[in-house]
Design goal:
Layout: H1 2-29, H2 36-39, H3 46-49, E1 54-59, E2 65-71, H4 76-79, E3 84-88, H5 99-108, E4 112-117, H6 130-146, E5 155-160, H7 162-173, E6 180-184, H8 190-197, H9 214-217, E7 226-231, H10 239-248, E8 255-260, H11 274-285
Parallel strand pairs: 3-4, 3-5, 5-6, 6-7, 7-8
Antiparallel strand pairs: 1-2, 2-4
GO molecular function: palmitoyl-(protein) hydrolase activity
Organism: Rhizophagus clarus
Protein name: AB hydrolase-1 domain-containing protein
């Protein structure tokens, strides 16, 4: 009797969860509409004070106006010689929260950096979806490759959480346009992520319309070096997802794995030596090894 009650309870929960998942999966995965912090975007003051930054309004092929901020090296001659980073944020924030990313890539690594705001996030128009965000990322990359100063610069994709899935997809489709890929705490796919969040969802993942199949896309990347940054204590996206992505990757350009023992889903970027690991990766993947001094690990 107890077993029957447990089965009925589990079935009821699964059905109820499935109904919510089917009708509201976009709202659950891309909560910008309901999270004030994701929608409200304020340009950090240091952009104007420390880093030259220009707002860019892009129109996608499906006629959605999205925003990005381009932080280009002050001198055009330097800008055209340094790499350009396309930063792709997670599902719960926006580019106004990426001050650490901007400062490190701009000041310490002397890169240009473009911060993309997906449709429905920050000041961008539209409603988020897998198809739409992929279009947004492609639009941003196309802008860089057509830019009068940056068009021939080496391009680095940096993505965390959902941004990692966006970066993997973009790299898989544009290998000839991208020179390095950095991903942090991202997942194999949405259907494979859901059961780790709530086990009964294992039986209804077939109703997912938002897939983000990074486990399939990463296998298509053959000639781009990849850095995997993983927080061991990540309770939202199990570290096993990152480990499997690393194993599935068969790029011929080299790959590196770095685990942060005390990193969770949100604080991995603040862990000791996080930026040193990225620098070491860039030194062999992008920069001339003799052109830049290393940073002290603290």
């Amino acid at each position: 009797m107890v077993l029957l009650e447990s089965i009925l309870t589990g079935t009821t929960i699964a059905i109820g969860s499935g109904t919510l998942l089917y009708y509201y999966q976009k709202e659950l995965l891309y909560p910008a509409k309901y999270r004030k912090k994701s929608r409200d975007f304020t340009v950090p003051k240091f952009f104007d004070e420390e880093i030259p930054c220009t707002e860019v309004i892009l129109t996608t092929k499906d006629k959605v106006r999205i925003r990005a901020y381009l932080c280009k090296r002050k001198n055009d001659e330097e800008a055209c010689e340094r790499p350009t980073v396309l930063a792709l944020h997670g599902n719960r924030g926006n580019i106004g929260k990426q001050s650490s990313i901007t400062r490190n890539f701009y000041h310490n690594f002397k890169c240009n950096i473009m911060l993309l705001s997906y449709r429905g996030y920050g000041s961008s128009d539209g409603i988020p979806s897998e198809e739409g965000i992929k279009i947004d990322a492609q639009t941003a990359l196309d802008y860089i490759k057509q830019h009068p100063i940056l068009h021939d610069t080496k391009v680095i994709l940096y993505g965390s959480s959902l941004g990692g899935a966006v970066a993997i997809d973009l790299a898989a489709k544009n290998e000839d346009e991208i020179d390095a890929l950095i991903i942090e705490n991202t997942f194999l796919s949405i259907p494979k992520l859901l059961p780790t969040l709530f086990y009964p969802l294992k039986y209804i993942t077939f109703i997912c319309t938002q897939i983000w199949p990074s486990d399939e896309q990463i296998k298509k990347i053959k000639k781009i070096p990849i850095l995997f940054l993983s927080g061991k204590l990540d309770a939202l996206v199990s570290q096993q997802h990152m480990k499997e992505l690393y194993e599935l990757s068969n790029t011929l350009a080299g790959k590196e794995w770095k685990e942060f023992p005390y990193g969770n889903h949100g604080n991995t970027i603040t862990q000791p030596c996080y930026w040193n690991v990225i620098e070491e990766f860039l030194l062999w993947a992008i920069f001339d090894k003799n052109s830049k001094r290393g940073m002290n690990c603290q």
